[in-house]
Amino acid sequence: MSNRQSAARVGEQPGDRMIDGARLRDLVVHEDARGSFTEFFSKGWGEGESPAQWSVVASTTGVLRGMHLHRRHDEGFLLLKGRASVGLRDVRPGSPTEGFSTLFEFTGDYPVYLTFPRGIVHGWLFHEPSLHAQSVSETYSEYGDDDNLGCHWSDPALEIPWPTRPILVAPRAEAFGSLAALMADTLRIDPHFRY
Predict the structure, then answer these.
(1) Do 122 and 67 contact (CB within 8 A), yes or no?
(2) Considering just the CA atoms, what is the radius of gyration of the chain in Å?
(3) 3-state secondary structure of 26
(4) In this structure, are residues 102 and 20 in contact, taking their beta carbons and an 8 Å threshold?
(5) 99-156 residue pLDDT tens
(6) Choice between 188 and 52, residue whose per-residue pLDDT is larger
(7) Mean pLDDT of the chain
(8) How many CB atoms lie within 10 A of CB 46?
(9) What would the pLDDT profile of 51-68 be if each residue is shown by its tens digit?
(10) Staple partner for 29: which of 1, 76, 103, 132, CB 3.0–4.6 Å?
(11) E strand or H helix at 81, and its extent?
(12) Residue 155 exposure: Cα atoms within 13 Å on the Cβ side
């Protein structure tokens, strides 16, 4: 099966650049009479990602998960079923794309694996019942509250043009403050937080 354009950046213009360190990998679906086979991760791809844990997450229509910031681990997102928007903002001081935001639209019909490094504020909004696989380079049991920070999804400073308002956000995420407060907390916790 040949993949069509499977992930689109909303409002993308010629010359736009990807957040430094973020990668999109179009996945090849091999179909036959039995069904299909899709490889979604291989150490042989040489992209530097080293997942320590994979999780499968189910979300209902209108769920927004985020906006989260991790200082110590990288992350990956693969939509298996459904439709989702994924928003990213680079907040790493000194990064070539510091202050750059992007929004991707994904569909489970055309699999694309998105990876991004630590220091990227991120969240996902699901437009229909969806299932996604999520990878992290540090197990959930290894990281603590000091590396599970966040800001409110609707902060205009994020510059993420969400296509709709979420219906359901976790109480903790709904209580997140501004992006400016997140950055102040991050630098207080880790004054050496850099690109």
Answers:
(1) yes
(2) 16
(3) strand
(4) no
(5) 999 999 999 999 999 999 999 999 999 999 999 999 888 887 787 777 889 999 999 9
(6) 188
(7) 88
(8) 7
(9) 888 899 999 999 999 999
(10) 1
(11) strand 75-81
(12) 27
Dihedral of CA atoms 108, 128, 179, 14 in degrees, nearest 10, equals 50
CA dihedral 70, 56, 21, 71 (to 10 degrees): 10
| Distance from C-alpha of 105 to C-alpha of 5, rounded to nearest angstrom | 11
Alpha-carbon gap, residue 86 to 9, rounded angstroms = 9
Element (H, E) at 171: helix 171-174
Helix (H, G, I), strand (E, B) or coil at 110: coil
> CA dihedral defined by 79, 85, 90, 95, rounded to 10 degrees?
60
Identify which of 73, 30, 70, 24 has the alpha carbon closest to the alpha carbon of residue 45: 24
Whole-structure pTM value: 0.88
Distance CA 140, CA 55 (A): 10
Query: Could you check whether the bond before residue 18 is cis, i.e. omega within 30 degrees of 0?
Result: no
Give whole-number Cα distances, 37 to 45, 121, 179, in Å: 18, 32, 40
